[in-house]
Specification:
- The chain is an alpha/beta fold.
- The chain has 3 domains: about 10-190, Ribonuclease H-like superfamily/Ribonuclease H (Nucleotidyltransferase, domain 5); about 200-240, no CATH class; about 250-315, no CATH class.
- About 30% of the residues lie in helices and about 10% in strands.
- It is built from 10 helices and 7 strands.
- It has helices spanning about 120-125, 135-145, 160-170, 185-195, 200-205, 215-235, 240-250, 280-290, 290-295, 305-315; strands spanning about 70-80, 90-95, 105-110, 150-155, 185, 265, 270.
- A 5-stranded mixed beta sheet has the order 3-2-1-4-5.
- The longest helix is centred in the last third of the chain and has 18 residues, at about 215-235.
- The chain is flat, with a radius of gyration of 23 Å.
Length: about 325
């Protein structure tokens, strides 16, 4: 999935040939309907969920250790960004595990219909030219829905990201896909529940100490300092200088024009990182769609963002400093 912490592939072009790159991936492609061209994302799309009917908790099939009553489809998305409401799929892979232990895997690249931002390419290695001849999601949506029919869903971090984004794509394609009657198995939530990722757990892991008076502000900051010292002691290759730590673990921040990352640098120019013009240069939007800037200036954005947009409206564009380009 497209997350800022994902590693960058050394050479995306050197990937193994994909056996499902052909027209039969998800079995079929459908013609592109006119209504699908240039469709805007629906920010109100949400993936609902409901309790799964309770059953016996058996020992599970020996082949996979799970007690499956119907197929469990693990899936992962590579996307144009990390906003489930606005971003689009550029690659989807599905591993369907059947109750008898047999497996089916299908992988397909998708033309998202919008430019793939450099920040997303840096994570998954997929460029605009890599998907130029691939189908749009609307062309494979029905066959994908058929492949996932009567399946529960599994993955890592899918509850907050992959499931709502997939549902939004199906909605834009006008293909029914209801998750309310499906179980969703998210290995990330199990990991977090069974292996807590909080300050108390970090202090215990790195320092072998208990956090006393948890959630007292002073106790928490002292514990945080101890955790950082423990991390420096454990990871010998960890930078010692705060600027170097920031650069290694928050690499996307260097491309922020504003402190929230609503506007980001694309090379030497500022570009939108949200909304229907995401990925487009501020200069181009200010020239071609000035009414859009006027509309944004009336919305609830930070003063910093509004100053950038107001100046752009007057022809004064942000200039990247040499420090931010490092």
């Amino acid at each position: 999935m497209t997350h800022p912490t994902d590693s960058t592939p050394e050479d995306a072009s050197a990937m193994e040939p994909n056996p499902f790159d052909g027209a039969d991936a998800f079995d079929s492609e459908e013609p592109m309907p006119e209504s699908a061209h240039g469709a805007d994302p629906d920010p109100d799309s949400e993936a609902g969920g409901a309790p799964y009917p309770a059953g016996d908790h058996g020992q599970g099939n020996a082949a996979h250790g799970l007690d499956l009553r119907r197929p469990l489809a693990f899936f992962d998305l590579e996307t144009t960004g990390t906003d489930p409401a606005e971003d689009r799929i550029v690659e989807i892979s599905v591993l369907k595990v059947h109750p008898d232990g047999t497996e089916e895997v299908k992988t397909r690249r998708i033309d998202p219909g919008v430019p793939i931002p450099e920040s997303a390419t840096a994570i998954h290695g997929i460029r605009d030219e890599d998907v130029a001849d691939e189908p749009r999601f609307v062309q494979v949506a029905r066959s994908l829905a058929d492949f996932l029919e009567d399946c529960d869903l599994g993955g890592f971090g899918i509850v907050r990201f992959d499931v709502p984004l997939l549902c939004a794509e199906f909605e834009r394609a006008d293909v029914p896909f209801d998750v309310r009657d499906r179980a969703i198995v998210d290995a990330l939530t199990i990991f977090h529940r069974r292996e807590p990722r909080n300050l108390e757990a970090a202090l215990r892991f790195y320092c072998d100490e208990r956090l006393e008076d948890a959630h007292s502000a002073e106790s928490d900051i002292r514990a945080t300092y101890r955790v950082l010292q423990g991390q420096i002691e454990r990871y010998t290759d960890l930078p010692r200088e705060p600027g170097a730590i920031d650069e290694e673990f928050n690499p996307g921040r260097r491309d922020f024009v504003d402190s929230q990352g609503k506007i980001v640098w694309q090379g030497e120019e500022a570009a939108f990182n949200f909304g229907k013009h995401r990925g487009q240069l501020v200069r181009e939007v200010a020239s071609n769609s000035p009414d859009y800037l006027d509309w944004l200036l009336k919305k609830d954005f930070s003063r910093e963002v509004k100053e950038i947009l107001e100046r752009a409206r007057q022809g004064e564009l942000p200039k990247r400093s040499s420090a931010s380009a490092r």
